Amino acid sequence: MSRPFSLYMLVGNPVSGSLSPAIHNAAFRALRMRALYVAVETPQGYLSQVVSASRFWTKGFNVTIPYKVDVMSLLDRLDRSASLVEAVNTVVNRKGVLVGYNTDGEGAMRALEKNLGPISGMRVVVLGAGGAARAIVFSLVQKGCQVVVANRTVSRAEALAAILRKKLGAEIRIIGLRKRELKKALSGSDLLINATSVGMLPHPEDTLVTADMLSPEVSVMDIVYKPLRTRLLREAEKAGCRTVDGLQMLVYQAALSFKLWTRRDPPLHTMMRAAKRAAEGRE
Ligand code: ATR
Known about the structure:
CATH topology of the largest domain: Rossmann fold
CATH class of the largest domain: Alpha Beta
Oligomer: single chain
Structural class: alpha/beta
Strand content: 15-25%
Helix content: 40-55%
Bound molecules: 2'-monophosphoadenosine-5'-diphosphate
Order of helices and strands: EHEHEEHEEHEHEHEHEEHEHH
CATH architecture of the largest domain: 3-Layer(aba) Sandwich
Shape: globular
Number of helices: 10
Radius of gyration: 19 Å
């Protein structure tokens, strides 16, 4: 009899542009595992059925837009990584018990540290206050960074500040996106992270920060990976800054999910190569 097959999936809507299947399937192949990762496009109203089925059919799954918050009430337990930021991107099926985790924040920290070295104590400007920004800001604060959040909708940034105060007793500074204000915040910073969707296809020429607002002491990470070299990263290179592209965070959060599901060390180089190939194929 053949060994059993393990199934993993991505639950979201839409999922067609996702690189996660390419990343995880490359890892399974490299480790010669009998496992498959599939993207399951889940229309509004079907999330609970897909999650119920996952208890029997899968060993775990990823959750993406728009279900990272909605999925929480359908799980049996939440790890602290998920309960802190109130969002789940990874679910592990432990013999029918579904446990929710969030690897986005830790994935971003690993991406930063692998590319830039230790980040604890850094002064960081984060653009954005949505779901992705929230996971990143929580992790930065836990690393002992001083964080300034710059968001178009200031009330949304204030809401993020309130949860951070309540859950971690931490304070962040909030600013808007006006050029002068941003430039001033950046002049005293070590790191800029774009955690908004600005610059993503079909608007690759959009950016909230240009080269004249940056100095070479500031490193710049973009979480956008479509296109891979965003306008922001090109502006940062022009200013002489070190840069970290959006595939880095994507691959490290995937590697952390992989480890949670399989308990095996993820083949990072393979995963990075697969992500690059899939991203370039789609640009
Ligand atoms: P995600 O879960 O990917 O973070 P999200 O929760 O919708 O998605 O958050 C998107 C972020 O990008 C928000 O910070 C949003 O700013 P607002 O809170 O003001 O909406 C930001 N964003 C999206 N488009 C933007 C634009 N054109 N200019 C500035 N900020 C933008």
